[in-house]
Amino acid sequence: MARTHNLGFPRIGAKRELKFAQEAYWKGQSSLAELKASGAKLRQRHWENQAGLDLVPVGDFSFYDQVLDMSFTLGNLPERVRGFHGDVLDNYFRVARGRSAQAAEAHAGCCGGVAAGEMTKWFDTNYHYIVPEFTAGTEFKLDAGRLLEQLAEAQAQGVKAKPVIVGPVTYLAIGKAKDDSDRLALLPRLLPVYAQLLETLAAQGVEWVQIDEPVLVTELDAAWQGAFETAYGELKTSRVKLLLATYFGQLLENVALAARLPVAGLHVDAVNGRDDVLPLIEALPADSVLSLGVVNGRNIWKTDLNATLDWLEPLAQRLGERLWIAPSCSLLHVPVDLASEQKLDAEVKSWLAFALQKLDEVRVLAQALNQGRQAVRAELDANGADIQARRNSPRVNNPAVKAALAKVDARLGERQQPYAERAARQAALLKLPKFPTTTIGSFPQTADIRQARSQFKAGEIDEAAYQAAMRAEIARSVREQEALGLDVLVHGEAERNDMVEYFGEQLDGYAFSQFGWVQSYGSRCVKPPILFGDISRPKAMTVEWIRYAQSLTDKPMKGMLTGPVTILNWSFVRDDQPRAVSCRQLALAIRQEVLDLEQAGVRVIQIDEAALREGLPLRRAQWQEYLDWAVECFRITANGVADETQIHTHMCYSEFNDIIASIADMDADVITIETSRSDMELLDAFDDFKYPNEIGPGVYDIHSPNIPTEAHMVNLMKKAAERIPAERLWVNPDCGLKTRQWNEVIPALTNMVSAARALRESV
Ligand code: GLN
Ligand code: ZN
Predict the structure, then answer these.
(1) Would you say residue 463 lies in a domain?
(2) Alpha-carbon torsion 349, 351, 357, 358, what sign?
(3) What is the distance between the alpha carbons of residues 555 and 490, in angstroms, rounded to a whole number?
(4) Which residues are recorded as binding 5-methyltetrahydropteroyltri-L-glutamate (predicted)?
């Protein structure tokens, strides 16, 4: 009998209940007890949703991030928050979000201001975790409170609980040694705490623990491979059975290592790593459980159940009781329930599956394996018909787009002159001061803006009223920016719900969900549009807004677009053609928008590629191929303009060291990046003239409510000026300001503009 299980459930809730509970608490509108109760309610509901499975994840719920949870479980709190004397959850939020120094002097060492932990992308997903911090002296100490509490709740609810934790090797691998010490040297101190944790869980009657080691799908050097042997060699005496879970990619050369680790079971991603499965079966000990992740936990397409069974049935024969069936990875990366979607096009909807539907696919597959296909004949037939219909739909295939794509050649991506000449022409036209100031695009998405948008969507106000409301917001942003004395203005993106959805909504080949939210970090969610067909742009998408904004000011107004690579990487994309092909279609569509903006007199155009880096394949051997087509797509999009038109691009939370040549190859005139939390360390990549064009290293951490001081920003820029010639530096925040409030933004930008003025005097 094949058993079924799940690796993790989307914690945010079908209607983003967690987000609203978190934010109410952070704003002081609800109590800690209310927040905790909302969490418990969500967990209860999600366990009910998964009741049909043989094993259900516990501990996958988090009030912010599962990696930060693990840091707290292991007692690995940054030194700066150790003196805190309030509730653990409050301290946890201090690490997650940072805290302004507003508490009394006397409390500066315990509960005063504190910097937020660094955040980075979880493998190749759009989920961000809080990076564990280490030093050579890091000690660990078990705090199993959160996990035990959730386990007790689950057990009381009759859930067949399988606690989920981040494994020790992955935990060290994804963290950062603040003093550049060797993280692996901490393993001997870390393992006893894991052993103690497993023992604690065993004492609570737990049989299986899922221990996530996704780092096994990346290239590992000998030291890290050795760490796996050491870690699991030591944990093998535990009384619980370990299901070691890998996902997001292929094990490849790590198959043998994974197979010989002394654990009771192994979970692998059998969607992305299907080729690993046969060698793995050969290599595994005869009593090991093999969990096959056959339902894609990263996309929203229905699984081809019949084809999957064709592949699975012989394996089930071979593995018998040892076979488990699951989604490929945690369902954290997909929305909760397709049934909530009332407005989605019926044809497209028939091709999709969200978390609950994916779990149902797992059930159907297991039933077909255990009782024969006839037991689920109706489900299999209906699935087969939907798969077939999608393949043949004329809505997926547009011959005109395919023809345009066939004509793309390299000249489309060339500017007329090299950067130095363009820069001189742009300087003559724009007349900007040294250390020019700008922002990254969005201004606060206020309650008024959101209300106007939801009224418009609900048909309560008409198009004209909505337009007027958005124009009023744009006018406000322009007024504020003029008062602040910024040099290159933005329109503020009031009309955009989201930087990708906004464009997707206006492109043909895209569909939209109403509730298809996926957690990005903390309470932030994105609703990735669904790229289902060939892409085209029926008409201009942003020109009228930018033209209006420019009409209100004599300062240069930046046109604001999202680049093709980011649109691709933040969408649910087709699984029936290569990503590169979908990306080139997007590039052609956005290029038309760039040219239309230029035509409308816009002199500065920013094309955000926030997600360029996150599209990097997990394995380095595949990086260059991706970078080549990604850069080509950016160049096709941007480089049709005249030399006088200044192209900006923007990237967030990126590290550039290893991709700097490709970033330079994009040839944007100006790049703005996120650097403030890393104390300008990220700029090292741009040092030594490796990056020849202009750079705006972010000096204002927009993820935190803290107001940066002028001195702090001057100091950061001085560090930047040690690495980059001052003539090529811009002064700007790390990213857009849409998640902040005006009363935070105004003082922060006031300080930022003063910082730029001070720099003009002194550097
Ligand atoms: N222009 C976008 C904004 O300001 C950029 C956001 C991003 O890079 N994530 O909101
Ligand atoms: Zn950004």
Answers:
(1) no
(2) negative
(3) 10
(4) 16-19, 121, 126, 524-525, 570, 614
The CATH number covering residue 536 comes to: 3.20.20.210
The reply to whether 752 falls in a domain is: no
The answer on 437 and 385 residing in a single domain is no
Q: Is 80 exceeded by the pLDDT of residue 556?
A: yes
Are 193 and 317 in a shared domain?
yes
Q: Is 703 a catalytic site residue? A: yes
607 lines ligand 1 (CB under 6 A): no
The token pair at 115 is 């910097």
Q: What is the pLDDT of residues 23-40, one digit of tens each?
A: 999 999 999 999 999 999
Q: List CB contacts of 97: < 8 A, sequence separation 6 or more.
A: 26, 116, 522, 703, 704, 705
Q: Do 432 and 348 belong together in one domain? A: no
What's the whole-number mean pLDDT along residues 640-662?
Answer: 91
Evaluate: CB of 652 within 6 angstroms of ligand 1.
Answer: yes
What is the overall mean pLDDT for the chain? 95
pLDDT, residue 140, reads 98
Q: What pLDDT score was predicted for residue 574? A: 96
Nearest-CA residue for ligand 1 atom 9 is 610
How far apart, in whole angstroms, are the C-alpha atoms of residue 300 and residue 336?
A: 10
Instruction: Tell which atom from ligand 1 comes closest to the C-alpha of 651.
Output: 8
As given in the structure block, the two tokens for residue 692 are: 């020849």
| Averaged pLDDT, 440-452 | 97
Residue nearest to atom 1 of ligand 1 (CA): 441
Residue 587 lies in a domain: yes
Give yes or no for residue 561 CB within 6 A of ligand 1. no
- Any domain includes 703: yes
Q: CA-CA distance, 655 to 677, in Å (whole number)?
A: 12
Q: Say if residue 338 is in the same domain as residue 233.
A: yes
At 108, is the pLDDT very low, low, confident or very high (cuts 50, 70, 90)? low
Q: Give me the domain span that covers residue 328.
A: 3-78+117-392
pTM: 0.90
**Distance in angstroms (rounded) separating the CA atoms of residues 437 and 485:** 9
Contact 636, 591 (CB under 8 A): yes
Looking at the structure of the chain, the number of domains it has is 2
